């Protein structure tokens, strides 16, 4: 919905955008105890389907870089045998 402005569930073009408030608990996604990220929502006005995305602000980018450093390969994955 974010890119196409079309609802993937019903095909409607009646899609609205709502940016999360920095003051609202429901407008944030908690990345950790001390860090949260703002959310943006795309809502279909016909079937009420919605999608949420984290806004890529400074707080999120700092958190995501730290998370990337902690990713460990899944050695149980079958794909590892082919690499």
Helix-and-strand structural type: alpha+beta
Termini separation: 35 Å
Mean pLDDT: 81
Number of strands: 4
Order of helices and strands: EEEEH
Q: What shape does the CA trace take?
A: extended
Let me know the largest β-sheet. 4 strands, antiparallel
Query: Which percent range fits the helix content?
Result: 10-25%
Cα-atom Rg, whole angstroms?
17 Å
How much of the residues is beta strand, in percent? 25-35%
* Contiguous helical run count: 1
- Unreliable spans are none
Secondary-structure blueprint:
Blueprint lengths: L14 E5 L8 E3 L5 E9 L5 E5 L3 H12 L14
Antiparallel strand pairs: 1-3, 2-3, 3-4
Could you list some keywords that capture this structure?
83 residues, 14% helix, 1 helix, alpha+beta, single chain
What does this structure look like?
The structure is a single chain. By secondary structure, the chain is an alpha+beta fold. The chain contains 1 helix and 4 strands; from the N terminus they run ββββα. It has a domain at 15-72. Strands 1, 2, 3 and 4 form a 4-stranded antiparallel beta sheet that branches. The chain is extended and about 40 Å long. 5% of the residues are buried.
In short:
With 83 residues, the protein is of the alpha+beta class. The protein has a domain of 58 residues. The chain has one helix and four strands, in the order E-E-E-E-H.
């Amino acid at each position: 919905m974010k890119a196409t402005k079309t609802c993937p569930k019903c095909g409607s073009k009646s899609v609205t955008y709502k940016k999360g408030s920095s003051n609202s608990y429901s407008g944030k996604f908690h990345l950790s105890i001390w860090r949260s990220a703002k959310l943006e929502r795309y809502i279909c006005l016909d079937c009420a389907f919605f999608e949420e995305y984290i806004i890529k602000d400074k707080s999120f980018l700092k958190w995501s870089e730290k998370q990337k450093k902690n990713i460990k390969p899944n050695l149980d994955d079958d794909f590892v045998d082919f690499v």
